[in-house]
């Protein structure tokens, strides 16, 4: 039933597949403080959407509303075709959740807890999606095989986080929510995690992930959403976002053994001039285009100087 | 049969057994569960040779069933409340919410855990008392049956109170400080360690309206001779009345506890757990 609903809406929605997550006009208000003021968001099946934003932008609130853990003030929300506020257990079985901070079950052993959580998913197997994942395989996937018999309260922060991710995917979810999953990861764990997310996307799992790490967003995202002040101020691929911000490119070169750096809005024109003037002596040219980081900083700064609405609409214009 | 509800029920049973095993291998848990028992048994031994006024029953023999009743109500009220507050703050409840039928598994697990812990505490008390106290015997199979149903019904009557308290009190550390005083007051008037019959009548009425008096009375009926009835409020063990009062508390308690638990569980979110973590870290 739920699947049919989702597919039925696909033609009017994003191209390239049915929408797994559809949000429009989402609002959240605590007392007289607006945390979310009209968020629109859409994720196709198998898409990896990364939500970026400063602290307090409403990332966690958005994710918790989609997970069904928080009631919203207004707006339309559908996750796998169902409203999270009224989603039943069958719907719940198709989601995976990794929250920001969990330090529960300290006395349990790693494999003990994974096996326990896995049991709940067994009645929800579907053709093509066997639930749950085998625990041994899962331990291998997240790199916890050597810690399988350890008590959870003896794990390091990064290991603990891997366990959280393992529990999030034990039910082979169709939609996975990850709220800052890589906090406390070392570079190697981070890379393993990125491989894991790519693997999930290959299994047709929709991933919605929040992070502070722009590099991570660039590596993982099919689409990036920048949330600031309770609004989506920009969205697109990392390249699209970078291209929309009129930031200067940085050109570096050496001449006569000396290093030069120059910022310019038009790197091509500048280089043409540079080479024409003193082409023979110039060596080691490097051009760094405006990056996702520049775009992020500019957009968030615009918002913080009280210009969020303008930033959002200006961006919409540019995309068109 | 492999329906979601049955699966969750079985997972919950297994969960309770696992948690019981964790409890029985944790120094902290063993100390907090058995510490009080050890102290009271030691005090009882010092009271040897002294008898309840007007009877030939040693005071220690009267204390022991009272201690069993107290253990049951501590498990029901204080242990349930502090486990709930702790596991709400550390994210255990939220984890259960994120899993299909996870709350069923959690609650069944908690119930099994509490029943197993309480049963082993009561069993240890019975064994210690039988070994150490003169003339302390259980009234055969009927006695066993009485101890069993009083334990279970006593837990059913008190656990909803603990669940409500654990849901309403926000910090795990506040649970004990808020509950201790009223709990001690109830213990004082409920005839746990001395005859409720000698208290002012209005106190007897309050005591008889609350579960602890009846749990302790039921336990005494299983271990004490009928000659001890002279110090009770009414000269009868009144087991039918005890069952009725405890059942009434259980039903009323569940009617109140279910919506309170639901509301508490609904309000759980990652942000709350995160706030709890920050509070815990500030305390160091």
TrEMBL record, chain B:
The keyword Repeat does not apply. Keywords: Cell membrane, Membrane, Transmembrane, Transmembrane helix, Transport. It is found in: Cell membrane; Membrane. It holds the Pfam family ABC2_membrane. InterPro entries: ABC2_TM, ABC2_TM_bact-type, Nod_factor_ABC_transporter. Residues 24-264 form the ABC transmembrane type-2 domain. It is a multi-pass membrane protein. The chain crosses the membrane at residues 30-47, 67-85, 111-133, 145-168, 174-193, 243-261. Belongs to the ABC-2 integral membrane protein family. This is Transport permease protein. It comes from Streptomonospora halophila.
